[in-house]
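Sequence in, structure out.
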Amino acid sequence: MALPPQPDSVLARLGTGESLPIWERRVFSNPVSHTTSSGRVEFVPAVRAPVPLEPAAVEKRRSGHNGYEGRTMHCPFCRHPDSRVVDSREADEGAAIRRRRACPECGRRFTTVETAVLAVVKRSGVTEPFSREKVVRGVQRACQGRQVDNDALYLLAQQVEDTVRASGSPEIPSHEVGLAILGPLRDLDEVAYLRFASVYRSFSSAEDFEREINDLRTHRESRAAELADAESATE
């Protein structure tokens, strides 16, 4: 509970423009005291500069039209520490929310994208956010010289993200990302798949390639049979 200001109190209320008060400890030359329901509290002069005492709830400032959203988004143009949400729409088939914001200071508008955090845990234990761009860059090296366009690569990256998010875990091991790449890449380009699999699975001999090629042939035949059955069913 906030203490009311006294004539010689060390607590003084600051204007914040918010419904929650912010109190600041001010240093006076003489010690003062204040009696509360819990007992007597004494304040002694300090040698440090005034220290803001902010309630934890003050960190949540109202922004937008959906209530409290944590710390506000700074304007990228004038760096004003507040912005107002004027429009919100779904993006990436509901995996993200695109918000249109307006700056009350300079009046300019900008867009932010809000997504659920998905972290990748490396073998060293270091975590980093999942990145579609990183998936695309890794697959691009395997697709060098192949007739695979960027649209197909970005679609593959989306499929990989959908697969790892389906696990329901906010953190996934890095090797699961590699496993999620193998399936879509095999259907996209078999040569690129062999290149990627040889590095990911650490092929060390021609027998490793031969075994993987046999598996590719088996997969191709089973897939062709499934397509034939689907076509015959629609006739």
